[in-house]
Design brief:
The protein is α/β, with parallel strands linked by helices and 152 residues long. The protein has a single domain (2-151), classed as Phosphoglycerate mutase-like (Rossmann fold, 3-Layer(aba) Sandwich). It contains 6 helices and 6 strands; from the N terminus they run βααβαβαβαββα. A 6-stranded mixed β-sheet has the order 3-2-4-1-5-6. A hairpin with a 2-residue loop joins strand 5 (120-126) and strand 6 (129-136). Helix 2 (26-39) runs parallel beside helix 3.
Length: 152
């Protein structure tokens, strides 16, 4: 199973209701497009996502390419409890992708792992626990893309 952090969406907005609607920025749109290319041949059968706009936009193109519907799940929102998120993840097969937020990664793994925007962890099941396996870096690194944009 892949646990994906949403692609680049600029800086957090001051109001939680406004922040829910924050879209991907130029770098994030490039990351999402590359993500679709990278994962379109993977045997993904299910995509679940936080309902925040930046998460949905991150996986939308991949879902279209794979012909699956993005399922919006509150268990993947920044304010979801660890228990809620784990309960959802336990229902997913290894052929699933879950798109979420930094806060969820921190809560699930007690702050012991990090994940760049647009990056993902392959999660392995060990009994009832999830263990981060391999890290998949973002398809487009933010600093490099922003540097290129500044040169244009």
């Amino acid at each position: 199973m892949l646990l994906l952090r949403h692609a680049s969406a600029g800086e957090r907005l001051s109001s939680p209701s406004l922040d829910r609607a924050r879209p991907l920025d130029d770098v994030g749109r490039a990351q999402a497009a590359h993500l679709s290319t990278m994962l379109s041949s993977d045997p993904l059968e299910r995509i679940v996502s936080s309902p925040h706009v930046r998460c949905v936009e991150t996986v939308a193109e991949l879902a279209r390419t794979l012909g699956v519907v993005v399922e919006l799940r509150s268990e993947l929102e920044p304010g979801a409890t660890k228990r809620e998120t784990l309960a959802l993840l336990r229902t997913l097969s290894s052929a699933s992708l879950a798109c979420s937020h930094r806060e969820v990664f921190e809560r699930l793994f007690d702050g012991n792992i990090t994940c760049e925007k647009g990056g993902a962890w392959i999660l392995e099941r060990r009994g009832s626990r999830f263990v981060p396996g391999a890290y998949v870096p973002p398809p487009v690194r933010i600093r490099r893309a922003r540097r290129r944009a500044a040169l244009v």
